[in-house]
Design a protein that fits this description.
The complex is a heterodimer of chains A (311) and B (740). Chain A is an alpha+beta fold. Chain A is built from 8 helices and 11 strands. Chain B is flat. Chain B is α+β, with helices and mostly antiparallel strands and 740 residues long. Classes of the chains: A alpha+beta (311), B alpha+beta (740). The interface between A and B is large, with 39 and 45 residues.
Chain lengths: 311, 740
């Protein structure tokens, strides 16, 4: 983005950084999706990753995903921690042989150049107990800071991934703080303008961080949340049951996506309950297990759809 | 003779797996070479983050030829038998077979000559086989392929040939990757392809392409440069062998840099600083030396050039993971320096300025977090955190953490007088020792549990013994960890472990096979070491019974058998522990047979007895007595079997005929009496000494007295006398369990 106007350059503008990454991956051949319209804990939950990682069909996509981690709220007082932040997610299936090079090139386009920086791949195995998923890969370090996660999916929703997808997750705020040289997330320049036209990350999100921290830790309606968990779980099961069709000898599924939405819902509600500290250690395990069972059933349903590769 | 060069080039291999992978590659390939008749002269494996390499030199060009004889049917056998034999042996006519006679007639024998295959072809079979079965702790697939490797594999170098000729490429491919002679240099500094021939040019070309192949050399380079950089600024490197090896596994071209952080962070406990910087950033910390270096004494950092570059240093690794001094309140905190050493994997064009600045920012942010946690934690007294434990489940069947703490407190109070601790202090320590689990700092760095408890206890003015126990009650954490010695720590540490063990035995969650999720083996071994190293006179059985009665009552279905089982578990741990200290397991078993933990005997007495027995058996008296004992029991066993009866009971003194019989009987009476008395006063060496005089009497008996005489009553009496030898030694140990 060297030809970009100053306010669009990644080292000055949060949105410029996002747009640079989008342009880079679009140029490579990814479809650029928009965020999923539900609350999720990470970009991986987007059906464009979780479900599309299953089955034989090639799939290359990139998107920004707002991610909610209710427990990580700090009332806007911690310079690095947020209960709502952005991930930039890239999923390449099958993982191309030059995926590491592609990733390093993407860093180059946002101004992280290996001539000046120490870029390292440090072991980090990824596991999502709620999604029944695991993969091997690394944390990508730039000068000692973790800026991305890099994972080769081995299993999702309890199913082996074949082919294997490569997943890149950029922590956008961290990356932006690094390239902008800012120590406090709220000081990020959001729009790349200066003076009265400048909008900071704090202008956009500080109030939200305070309000949601209050909500997540003190006021969220736990009775409602327990009920919502139960309802989402039941609805997911109901849609899954209703979606199975038999076409001759072949079992097909016709509602994998709506069912999976309920699984996402249950997962987020669980995170909210967990943040309120109303789930005991032993119960916690059983809630995670319940979400995982939903995810597995959704994965199974997805594999019986056209996009999931069912003949 | 030809050499083999093998390089498996992949994406970044986790540092912790590298050393073992190199060793596995060496062993697996060379074992198969030897199995294939290719005995080599030497082999060495190397590893970097991106490559596993193996050099094997002095491999024969071919396998030796093998001649194999296959026996066929009898001469004149039916035609189909002959045809089958010809087919199996690969012969076209029966004339090609030899005729050999044996006891039953003449037989056809086919001599099959198997010429040895060319080594390069054998290797082409061995390497893919090794790769497919490679024992990575975790392996993965990638793209559309089916090969599994630790991370995606990109290329293979495999060349084979003598020094004097252009080597050949070993002809194999695995999952579409064909072996060749091309590799790559450093990811950023020399990404171009490199053509290599054999190990020596491979090593030099890699070095020129900014890759130091030998992990040990990378470690030495890092260590030398880190020390120099620290020294130049007037500090000492806090050495850390584990971190050094990890960091050497993260770089192909180590570039050591120094960074700094604000002095103000030094108010945080030094262990916290070190944990943050080490675990999260993989950087080394420095400390102020006890004697600052003289002006002008600092050396400049040595330049590093090609293969021979780098400062030669003698490795001076400390045996432990760290040589950070043990924390001692505020004293230790003044010793860390506001500096850190980082190891980059690249030579930046700005000399590393941006890299240092970036690392400093991350470390500053981490230390700011840590400082915030520390200061926040100090605002709440430990006892004020305790009510929260009422809502935290320790284990579904064992209740909440609060209940567990109450149990530990009761047991620690009970133990205090036994171990010489002040009861009130032991109770106080037990009450507070888990409270740091609820602090921000331990939430963030679980590995600091206990240590933070100590800091916070000291900060709120607790007695130093109470504070120390907050840390030490977890100890010992492993077989090499220090055992607490302060009586308060001993009481709480023992109470913690006994509560865990009695509890999990009460709900029947014992370790099985390799599964020990609650680390109960470690707890038992810890309790054993605490008791032994502090020479604490207590019966584990009585302690466990007291605790289960007073704190668990209802949970047991069968208290006695559960505690029997727990004591057996302790005995097994004890045997393992003593074996590790080179004590013979048969002696442990001989001693346990006469007085076990199950029967409520004291651990320290059992160990004393094993020691005394070992010493006794090292003497001539001991060895000969054991031999006499074995001889006596063998005779009795044989005769008892023959006669289908036992020879027990007191011999009849009136039937003694020879002086040797009388002397032995007298010696046995004396030995029994004296050894039993010695055991009663816990004088095990004395007990051994008491049975030592038996030895010449036993020897004389065997010399002069015939046991199997015709007179039946005389024979019976002599057998009974022999049996008395057995009885006499039982006061000390069950000699029948001693080997040799």
């Amino acid at each position: 983005m060297t030809d970009a106007p100053p306010h669009m350059r990644p080292e000055r503008s949060f949105q410029g950084l996002i747009l640079s990454l989008q342009r880079y991956w679009a140029d490579w051949g990814c479809i650029i999706l928009q965020p999923y319209d539900m609350e999720v804990g990470a970009g991986t939950f987007h059906p464009a990753t979780t479900l599309r990682a299953l089955g034989p069909k090639p799939w290359n996509a990139a998107y920004v995903q707002p991610s909610r981690r209710p427990k990580d709220g700090r009332y806007g007082e911690n310079p690095n921690r947020l209960q709502h932040y952005y991930q930039f997610q890239v999923i390449l299936k099958p993982s191309p042989p030059d995926i590491q090079e592609l990733y390093l090139q993407s860093l180059y386009t946002i101004g992280i150049k290996p001539e000046f920086h120490d870029i390292r791949f440090v072991e980090d195995d990824w596991e999502s107990p709620t999604l029944g998923a695991w993969g091997l890969g690394w944390e990508c370090w730039c000068d000692g800071m973790e800026v991305s996660q890099f994972t080769y999916f081995q299993q999702v929703a309890g199913f082996e991934c074949a082919p294997v997808s490569g997943e890149l997750t950029y922590g956008l705020e961290r990356l932006a703080m690094y390239v902008q040289g800012v120590d406090r997330v709220y000081d990020l320049n959001f729009n790349g303008r200066e003076g009265s036209r400048k909008v900071s990350y704090g202008d956009v999100f500080l109030q939200a961080e305070k309000e949601y921290s209050r909500h997540n830790f003190e006021h969220s309606d736990t009775d409602m949340l327990f009920e919502q968990f139960r309802m989402a779980e039941a609805a997911c099961r109901k849609y899954l049951d209703a979606g199975w069709l038999t076409d001759g000898n072949v079992r097909r599924h016709a509602m994998a996506l709506p069912a999976y939405d309920q699984c996402i819902k249950a997962s987020h509600v669980f995170n909210l309950l967990d943040a309120r500290g109303v789930i005991s250690v032993t119960e916690r395990q059983s809630y995670i297990l319940r979400v995982r069972e939903l995810a597995k059933a959704c994965g199974e349903a997805w594999l019986a759809t056209e996009a999931g590769g069912a003949a | 003779m030809p050499d083999l060069l093998l390089e498996l080039f992949s994406e970044e291999i986790p540092a912790r797996m590298q050393a073992k992978a190199a060793e596995d590659l060496r062993k697996l390939v060379t074992d198969k070479l030897v199995d294939a008749g290719l005995v080599y002269e030497g082999a060495k494996a190397f590893v970097t983050p991106r490559r596993l390499a193996l050099a094997v030199h002095g491999v024969p060009v071919r396998q030796p030829d093998v001649k194999e004889e296959r026996k066929g049917p009898r001469v004149g056998a039916p035609e189909n038998a002959i045809a089958g034999f010809l087919k199996a042996a690969g012969l076209s006519s029966i004339d090609q077979a030899k005729v050999q006679p044996d006891k039953r007639g003449d037989f056809y024998v086919a001599v099959i000559e198997k010429p040895g295959r060319a080594a390069i072809d054998v290797i082409a079979g061995i390497v893919p086989e090794v790769m497919r079965g490679f024992p990575w702790p975790k392996a993965m697939r990638w793209g559309g392929g089916s090969l599994t490797w630790v991370r995606p594999l990109h290329s293979i170098v495999a060349t084979f040939g003598p020094e004097t000729e252009e080597p050949g490429i070993v002809p194999f491919a695995i999952d579409g990757i064909a072996a060749g002679n091309v590799t790559r240099g450093h990811r950023f500094l020399a990404p171009e392809t490199i053509v290599v021939r054999r190990f020596d040019d491979y090593l030099h070309k890699l070095e020129a392409a900014k890759v130091v192949l030998d992990p040990w050399r990378r470690e030495q380079m890092i260590l030398a440069d880190a020390k120099d950089l620290a020294f130049a600024q007037g500090y000492d490197l806090v050495e850390d062998a584990g971190l050094l090896s990890e960091v050497a596994g993260l770089v192909e071209w180590p570039v050591v840099l120094i960074g700094s952080f604000e002095e103000a962070f030094l108010s945080i406990p030094p262990e916290v600083i070190r944990t943050t910087i080490r675990n999260n950033q993989k950087c080394f910390v420095l400390r102020s030396p006890s004697h600052p270096p003289l002006e002008g004494e600092g050396r400049s950092r040595s330049e590093r050039g090609g293969v021979s570059g780098g400062t030669k240093v003698t490795p001076s690794r400390s045996p432990s993971a760290t040589d950070l001094p043990p924390p001692g309140g505020g004293e230790a905190s003044t010793r860390l320096a506001p500096r850190f050493i980082l190891v980059a994997n690249t030579e930046a064009t700005d000399g590393g300025k941006a890299i240092v600045a970036g690392n400093e920012r991350v470390i500053r942010a981490r230390l700011a977090d840590a400082k915030f946690f520390y200061e926040t934690d100090l605002k709440t007294r430990l006892e004020d955190r305790l009510p929260k434990f009422e809502h935290i489940v320790f284990h579904e069947k064992l209740g909440t953490q609060a209940e567990r703490i109450a149990r530990i407190e009761r047991l620690a109070a009970e133990l205090a007088p036994i171990v010489g601790a002040d009861v009130e202090k032991a109770k106080r320590a037990a009450k507070l020792c888990k409270a740091d689990l609820l602090t921000e700092m331990v939430g963030e760095f679980p590995e600091l549990q206990g240590l933070m408890g100590k800091y916070y206890a000291l900060a709120q003015g607790e007695d130093p013994s109470v504070a120390a126990a907050c840390e030490e009650h977890y100890k010992p954490l492993g077989p090499t960890d220090r055992v607490p010695t302060d009586p308060v720590s001993v009481a709480v540490a023992l109470a913690d472990k006994i509560d865990t063990l009695v509890g999990f035995w009460a709900i029947d969650e014992k370790p099985t096979g390799s599964k020990d999720p609650y680390a109960l083996r470690r707890a038992a071994l810890g309790a054993i070491r605490i008791v032994l190293e502090n020479k604490t006179a207590l019966s584990l059985r009585e302690l466990a019974e007291w605790h289960s009665e007073n704190c668990f009552g209802k949970r047991y279905l069968d208290v006695a058998s559960a505690i029997d089982n727990l004591m057996n578990f302790f005995e097994d741990r004890l045997t393992v522990q003593l074996r590790d200290q080179n004590a013979r397991h048969d002696l442990v078993s001989a001693v346990l047979a006469t007085g076990s933990l199950v029967e409520g005997h004291q651990l320290i007495r059992i160990v004393d007895r094993v020691e005394a027995l070992g010493k006794f058996l090292d003497t001539d008296d001991g060895k000969n007595l054991l031999a006499g004992y074995k001889r006596a029991t063998n005779i009795i066993r044989i005769e008892e079997k023959k006669d289908k009866r036992e020879y027990t009971g007191t011999p009849d003194a009136s039937l003694y005929q020879l002086p040797e019989e009388r002397d032995l009987a007298k010696a046995i009476d004396a030995a029994k009496k004296e050894s039993t008395a010695a055991v009663a006063r816990e004088d095990f060496a004395g007990a051994m000494a008491a049975i030592a005089p038996l030895r010449p009497r036993v020897d004389a008996f065997f010399d002069k007295v015939t046991v199997n005489v015709d007179d039946a009553s005389l024979r019976e009496n002599r057998l009974k006398l022999l049996n008395e030898i057995r009885e006499a030694t039982r006061a000390v140990a069950d000699f029948s369990r001693i080997e040799g």
